[in-house]
Amino acid sequence: MNINRLFIANRGEIAVRIIKAANALGVKTIQAFSEADKDMLSVRLADESICIGPASASASYLDINAVVSAAVRMKADAVHPGYGFLAENADFAKAVKDAGMIFVGPDAETIERMGDKVSARQVAEAAGVPVVPGSKGRVESTDDAAKIAKTIGYPVMIKAAAGGGGRGIRIAQNEEELRNFAPQAQAEALAAFGDGGLYLERAIRSPRHIEVQILGDGVNAIHCFERECSLQRRRQKVWEEAGAVNLKKATVAHLCQAAVDLAKAVQYRGAGTIEYLYDDDTGEFYFIEMNTRIQVEHTVSEMITGIDLVQEMIRIAGGGKLNLRQDQIIRNGHAIEVRINAEDPFMQFMPFPGKVGTMSIPKGDGVRVDHFLYEGYQIPPFYDSLLGKLIVHAPSRDEAINKLLVALKEFQIGGLKTTMPLHIALASDRDVRAGKFHTQWLEAWLAAGNLDATMREGALL
Question: Are residues 428 and 300 in the same domain?
């Protein structure tokens, strides 16, 4: 392998995850950190570390020149972007390559092609993957958007052409709302991604969010089955599962094969995710986007397949080929991941940075916690509130939920408010246990006061 020194251009739990994967491959690690992150766990765990700027992400983790210059100074062979920050920035991938280093992920051209939702949609259509009815390209004006919306039918979803994470999305029920929301979506997209481009899709009522994990080496591609990611708040995933809930085997096979076909069509290298909307009413699914990076929820795919996806990313980036055929990847049981955020779920999910007190991390067969915490660590207020992920694996979904409940009640992080009460309540909910939910379900469940009601009933004791 051509990678001996790996520069980690990220922070938090994913940085720790990358260090563990690199250690298993015998690769030395170099951790980038901002001034606010000098005491971060990954700084302690890495072989070497370097400060790349002040606390502000725009002057450190998002500063391409600062990151690349630091990696060059540290004589890195490769740079791993993790997720978020610069992970899907084509200019960053190109800058890494131009500086003589390996980017752990697809090449800049693939990132650019699949990172733009309009371009990705066109690629998917060419590969025979179903797409949601929508605009054929970027929408240049509100008048054009109104004409297109009449063709595809209301309600329509106004989406940012670049970026992700739910930014820039608005749903218009009629032309009046479209003309009001389009400029708002454009302004938000421009602020978040530096690109105010928009496109339109027909809004599917109460869809489910299903995605497929893929691995490619630039020639061949395989999938590691599907994930259910429909439990979302403000279009941010909070609970993920592998596999998806209550899907027919034929549908799963079609989803997964379409993902592989698309990965091959773009000669994809590394780990990536194909995301779909699934319509329970019709049984149809539609491609929405490709994430050209490792996902937060990659863990559940690892748990049901036994494949270390981060190791595979590093190995493929270092010149390796896929060493598994599709028929060698066997699904084993069911896995669930819940995101543990430093937020108070009883106070409108207000961020709650603070100092970590006494911790008690659940352990046992089929229980995994990916995190970056230690007792006495001061959580900085400048970044995403994700503290870590609790992942469980069991032979069946019911057993996995039961194991999750036990692990959540054992999990203690002193000194902080976290979203663990939300997950205990969800794991106790009849609809969740029956798999009867969609992407808007959690918002409605919270608005109805179900979190407080579950607490009163004693599920959180």
Answer: yes
